[in-house]
Amino acid sequence: EEWEADSVLGTLLQKLREEGYLAYYLQGGFSRFQAECPHLCETSLSSRGGPSTALGPSPVVGLGGLCLGSDCSDAESEPDRDAMSCGLDSEGAPPPPAGLLPSFPVQILPNLYLGSARDSANVESLAQLGIRYILNVTPNLPNLFEKNGDFHYKQIPIS
């Protein structure tokens, strides 16, 4: 295992495994996966329904635009947000301009979406996408719809 136990990835993998889930990660990250399996990848520049037609590794919308804290819950209204509170993408670069950020939630796999705090608070969007199970990785944001019975939450606080 090449990840460090105190890293975000290490914490997430440890918590998922403690709960009895089989958890894996891509060794080499998305860049290596895209280089080896471009037919299985989409980028922000490719069409919604098909794979990327990249001439090499394409620019990818990373996790830099995903804010985990409540101070970053509305990226459009805070264009000059602090990079330290929102984080940088996996390459250490600042997030792409707001015009290139996807409209969350983004479908990662069938029935698996990646979204922000704002998305998790939008019950209409969750219902429209059929999202009923939510993994909350924030240390400070509540599971808003936990008591209504339509949503199931797993909270793994990562700071």
TrEMBL record:
Q: Name one GO molecular function term.
A: MAP kinase tyrosine phosphatase activity
Q: Where is the Rhodanese domain?
A: 14-42
Example of a GO biological process term: negative regulation of MAPK cascade
Q: Which SUPFAM superfamilies match?
A: (Phosphotyrosine protein) phosphatases II
At the top level, the lineage of the source is Eukaryota
An annotated GO cellular component of this protein is: cytosol
Q: Has keyword Hydrolase?
A: yes
Q: Output the InterPro entries linked to this UniProt entry.
A: Prot-tyrosine_phosphatase-like (IPR029021), Rhodanese-like_dom (IPR001763), Rhodanese-like_dom_sf (IPR036873)
What protein is this chain from?
A: Dual specificity protein phosphatase
The organism is Neovison vison
Gene designation: H0Y7W4
